[in-house]
Specification:
elongated, 4-stranded mixed sheet, single chain, PHB_accumulat, PHA_DNA-bd_N, 8 helices
């Protein structure tokens, strides 16, 4: 297969694809398969696939074919909804932005992959997802306290408050206090 010394030297390995659909690794002087190319990708070996007759770069088509083979033979990674949205982008005015967006998203995911793995290994209670969850719950509680007056009152206090209707002025003052408390909580959460 690929010689590590060639890949380590920063050179791209040239793979020639012949009309009979065979792939020839010019670095190792051997015929290889799509599975070999998939392994090279996983090992971060840089290569370029060219059509042996025309010399055209067909790396994109070969990588797409590897993805199709992986999706057909193994566990599917690309959800149908994603594929539909991706297909819907072809011909769309945003099509030109998609390659750089997808590349940046994948790079970001790969860079944060170890952090995500750690979070799941430690459990959600100690990870970044727990912090996001806590922030969301605090915001929901703050909103509930604001829009549902008396949320924190005890049951006895609620019954007492229900038996005596508040004066309109007191109700507005209570709402202002609750709004101020919610604003304070939101400010603390955004820090």
């Amino acid at each position: 297969m690929a010689k590590k010394s060639t890949a380590d030297a920063g050179e791209s390995i040239t793979i020639k694809k012949y009309a009979n659909r065979r792939l020839y690794n010019t670095s190792s002087s051997s015929y290889i398969t799509l599975d070999d190319l998939a392994k090279m990708v996983r090992e971060n070996v840089d290569f370029q696939v060219v059509d042996a007759k025309s010399g055209d770069d067909i790396t994109h088509q070969i990588l797409t074919q590897i993805i199709m083979d992986e999706e057909a033979s193994g566990e599917q990674m690309l959800p149908v909804s994603f594929l539909r949205q991706l297909i819907g982008m072809y011909g769309n005015s945003m099509q030109s932005l998609m390659p750089s967006y997808l590349e940046a998203s994948m790079t970001n995911f790969r860079e944060n992959q170890s952090k995500i793995r750690e979070a799941f290994e430690k459990g959600l209670s100690a990870g970044p997802l727990a912090a996001i969850h806590e922030t969301n719950m605090a915001m929901v509680r703050a909103a509930a306290e604001t829009f549902i007056p008396g949320q924190k009152k005890s049951a006895a206090a609620k019954r007492n408050a229900e038996s005596q209707p508040p004066a309109p002025h007191d109700e507005i003052a209570a709402m202002r206090e609750q709004m101020a408390a919610m604003q304070k909580k939101l400010d603390e959460l955004s820090k």
